[in-house]
Amino acid sequence: MPVFTRAGLSRTVIMFAALLLTAVTTSASAREFRAADTQSEDYPTVQALRFMGRLIEERTNGRLQIRVFHSRQLGEEKETIEQTRAGAIDLNRTNVALIGTFVPAMNVLALPFLFRSIEHLQKVLDGPIGDEILGSFEPYGFVGLAFYDSGARSVYNSVRPVRTVADMKGLRLRVQQSELMSDMIKALGAEPIELPYGQVLTGLATKLIDGAENNWPSFVTTDHYKYAGFYTLTEHTMSPEVLVMSRKAWTSLSAEDQAVFRAAARESRHFMRERWKDLEEQSRRRAQAAGVTIVSDFDRKPFEAAMADIYAKTRRDPQAAALIERIRKVN
């Protein structure tokens, strides 16, 4: 057994106490930001948020950290948007259709049949138009950081294959809690049922609804495909996801830390896209293997024509009308 002098023992105790105090101080000085996402833990958007968090932690030497709350732990999207606006949640990944209630430009991005393809969408969002839209969030209590892909949304149901607009008549379809999405379904002759995302599976299982509209991963990862065996590739909207930050949290950051957040968010966008492509293909194959009827030979033009009133209403706003034309001119 080593023999300690009183002085040596005192020094050892002091050093241990100093190390312990340093560890506690370092831990206490790290600031944690809460990020909300309604998707499951392994979903590309959740993984992208965690990737962004790792970048921020590395680039600030652990001073700033992100804690991701997935699977609706902080509430449904509509609730988390309101909490983010109030400053109770720091970061939020949400679909543009839902945040359009607060940020008008988002309603344009959610318009049906606006984008010609995913490539067209990405060119718009990765360019000056995308930057301008992200810059328009601040007056409404948010800061736009990045757009994430969410593929193309299509109609699925448990009643019949949809090949014409007439086949939509009478179907009770879940839509996001969005006036625009309700108007779209009404224009196609179906009945929109606004339900939170987390209640769709129960709605399908209990026949409260006949179907819904969403992308391949959401259709499969939520088990909707087990109750709705007809999936029509309407690809009516390609509205992206958007990552926003509470303006309250944003203004508490220094200019240098704001730059760190913006850069990490942009890098997480590319990270997310790669994982999205893989999940989309896996989901489609899984649905096919389960016997889902996939309809691609449907009459698209009448679907587009049915949106005339929605576009006329949107174009009453000169800024929205100008944005629509700019987007359509991007090649």
**Sheet with most strands: strand arrangement:** 2-1-3-10-4
Protein structure class: alpha/beta
The SSE order reads HEHEHEHHHHEEEHEHEHEEHHEHHH
Number of helices: 15
Give the percentage of residues in beta strands. Answer: 15-25%
The shape, in one word, is globular
What value does the average pLDDT take? Answer: 92
Mind telling me the C-alpha Rg?
Answer: 24 Å
- Would you report the number of β strands? 11
Helix content: 40-55%
**Largest sheet report:** 5 strands, mixed
Question: What is the structure about, briefly put?
Answer:
The protein is an alpha/beta fold. It is 49% helix and 18% strand.
Task: Explain the overall architecture.
The protein has 331 residues and is α/β, with parallel strands linked by helices. It is 49% helix and 18% strand. It is built from 15 helices and eleven strands. The protein has helices spanning 6-29, 44-59, 77-86, 96-99, 104-109, 118-125, 128-134, 179-187, 200-205, 216-221, 247-251, 255-289, 300-305, 308-314, 318-329, and strands at residues 31-36, 64-69, 91-95, 142-148, 153-157, 172-175, 191-194, 211-214, 230-237, 241-246, 293-295. A five-stranded mixed beta sheet has the order 2-1-3-10-4. α8 (179-187) links the parallel β6 and β7. α2 (44-59) packs antiparallel against α12 (255-289). It is globular, with a radius of gyration of 24 Å.
